[in-house]
Amino acid sequence: MAERLKIASQGQGIPLVFIHGWGLNSAVWQPCLEQLKSDFEVITVDLPGFATNNSYQVSEYSLVEIADAIQQAIGKPAVYIGWSLGGLVASQITLTHPEQVVGLVTVASSPQFVEREAWPGIKESVLAMFHQQLAQDTTKTISNFLKIQAMGSPNIRQDIKKLRDLVMQYEQPNQQVLDDSLQLLETSNLSNRLSDIHQPFLRLYGKLDGLVPKGVIPLINSLVPDSDHFIFEQASHAPFISHQTEFLTVLKSWLLEHIEKD
């Protein structure tokens, strides 16, 4: 039998599966898990090639392959909560394994991250720069990426330090994994498939986010009009770090209202 992705679970209740973003790992969720594990089963999973799944390999580093691997590791219906690139993965799991998803929450995520005509996003030149930097110094590239994620936050230094301290608990992914996963951000586009998501769906955004511009929010509203969304006014790309209390209040309230207990 093929090896499965490693997962970590604590607490009891409705299962919540947390998926991290590009370049980082599941440790980013630790502060939130401490506040949620008394009411929910909180499950974290590192993407293939990251942290606890550092040695796990997929035949192709694609959204579909990764979604399949994560769903098989979880093995039961759950609410999937994905941050940034993790939001793309969580959305893919919802599309390909709908019977295993009882709710979807995306955090600072977009179905298409790259800027296109009439679609706000990350400029292709910025992603090209990251590819070039990865070839020279992976650690410095991740450090620079952390700065971009916190940019605009009123507590930028504290946010960067908190993210860095959490992420650096684990061995960092190699250049190939970082390159392959960055490619997912560049090439993935689920915008035309969002209307196929029929589970309760919450989208959380930071108004000051430089990677997922606020201009994309009304466009996604029109693609999934039945979904809910919330904008953290003073947050950037990591509202669960910079505005943890408010983030948890919004998340818990939505879960209690939309997700039925067994």
Structure write-up:
The chain is of the alpha/beta class and 262 residues long. It has helices at 30-36, 63-74, 85-96, 124-136, 138-150, 156-167, 175-187, 217-223, 239-242, 244-258, and strands spanning 7-10, 15-19, 41-45, 78-83, 101-107, 201-206, 228-232. Helix 5 packs across helix 6. The radius of gyration is 17 Å and the shape is globular. The model has no long low-confidence stretch (mean pLDDT 93).
N- and C-termini, Cα separation: 31 Å
Tell me the Rg in angstroms.
17 Å
Oligomer description: single chain
Order of helices and strands: EEHEHEHEHHHHEHEHH
Largest sheet: 7 strands, mixed
Outline type: globular
User: Spatial order of the strands in the main sheet?
Assistant: 1-3-2-4-5-6-7
Question: Topology, pairings included?
Answer:
Blueprint: E1 7-10, E2 15-19, H1 30-36, E3 41-45, H2 63-74, E4 78-83, H3 85-96, E5 101-107, H4 124-136, H5 138-150, H6 156-167, H7 175-187, E6 201-206, H8 217-223, E7 228-232, H9 239-242, H10 244-258
Parallel strand pairs: 2-3, 2-4, 4-5, 5-6, 6-7
Antiparallel strand pairs: 1-3
Helix pairs in contact: 2-3, 4-5, 4-7, 5-6
